[in-house]
Automatic annotation (TrEMBL):
Segments passing through the bilayer: 140-164, 176-194, 200-218, 276-299, 333-358, 370-395, 401-422
MF annotations from Gene Ontology: L-isoleucine transmembrane transporter activity; L-leucine transmembrane transporter activity; L-phenylalanine transmembrane transporter activity; L-valine transmembrane transporter activity
Organism, as annotated: Azospirillum palustre
Residues annotated as signal peptide: 1-22
Domain of life: Bacteria
Family: Belongs to the binding-protein-dependent transport system permease family. LivHM subfamily.
Coiled coil, from the record: none
An annotated GO BP: L-alanine transport
Protein name as it appears in the record: Branched-chain amino acid ABC transporter permease
Compartment list: Cell membrane
One Pfam family cited in the UniProt record for this chain: BPD_transp_2
Gene Ontology CC terms: plasma membrane
Keyword vocabulary terms for this entry: Amino-acid transport, Cell inner membrane, Cell membrane, Membrane, Signal, Transmembrane, Transmembrane helix, Transport
Amino acid sequence: MLRILPLLCLVLLMLTGCGVDADQDVLCRKLIPAFEPGRVTDLSTRSYTEDKRVLRVDYRSGSQSHWIACRFAGTAMEEGRRTLVAVATDRSGWLTEMRFAMLQQWLRIKPPRDAIGGVVETERPQPTRWTPALFLAQQIINAATVACVYGLLALGYTLVYAILGQINLAMGELTMVGAMVTAMAAAGLGMAGWATWPPALLGVLVLVIGFTAVQGWTMDRLVFRRLRGVCSHTPLIVAVGLSIAYQEGVRLLHGARDWWPAPVLTGRYDLLSDGAFTVTALTAQLAILVLTGGLYAALWGIMQRTAFGRAHRACTDDIAAAELVGVDVNRTVAATFAIGGGLAAAAGAVIALYYGGVNFFTGYLIGFKALAAAVVGGIGSVPGAMLGGALLGLVETFWSAYFALAYKDIVAFGLLTLFLIYRPQGLMGQARGRGD
């Protein structure tokens, strides 16, 4: 008997990895309401023999059978067994990166489930005549946070362009740096138990803005100041090089994996409801609006009430004449880069703490979209940057809500193309002649 006991233990140890992990099963079942609005029954779970990291849940909705598959970072015996990395359904296959990121955001608001982890079957009220209007109001609230991200970064683009007449394509990477630093700082706050303490979050925001402002100042001091006055595309090419250097530097230092900070300010408020649809807002959304409004008001005050603002406006009108009357052009331009970097960092902090999923490539597409917002609003105009961000946020959110999500980026850059063709100066910009 004693000789058989070790063999039995070995067999039991081997069998522990052959069943379905309960935690993975619960997590995968929680995703079903994101794809299936109706009642579901006959749930069963199994693992794939080809890949033990993939779990499949079969269920019935009405008279039709469906399934959802979840891939995790590890099996039941490995680290990362609770980390979801991909999701597939019988209708759409494996989700794209954007749809998976939105699913991760949806997962933070947990659907109801029973004691064994199954989805609770609930009856949904029928839509009323007010439901479309409430849905539209919800999309406006959702668009506000997107507009804040684009508007803050567009301000950075427009300040630099107004004073130099050049576009700093590396501004998006400053957003990425701000997002990565925010994610790391949030992880530190989580370990210290301060992840949801507002003063700690405010301290992280100030730290990130200061750090990235220094990055912007250094960028001008070491690179763009040496190219001032060059009448060629060299500064634009250098900006592209800086962008790639920032991306690869962060990838080598921190890896290519996504960072998902714990959600903060998750309070949820019901604003309007007709029984079938409820308009809701999060505390984080209100905080983002307050942050963006405060930064815009501070920027307006700086531009209108301070010596730097007067110097910036003078350099915007005629940089050579401003230098002749005693304006320190180098210091003014460096401060402009620093302010632009700080605004980009604020946008990155919003991305990290509200949307999550930041990595070394975060600033690439966001940067180009914010540039599109700046051009649409009138690059060089501070109010135009915020207006362009609001317009792009509305267009992108409404398209995602009412039409195919896969085409929202095409629509965003299509809007930029139309403005460049029919109104190249943007909504609030000034028409420029050749040589400007």
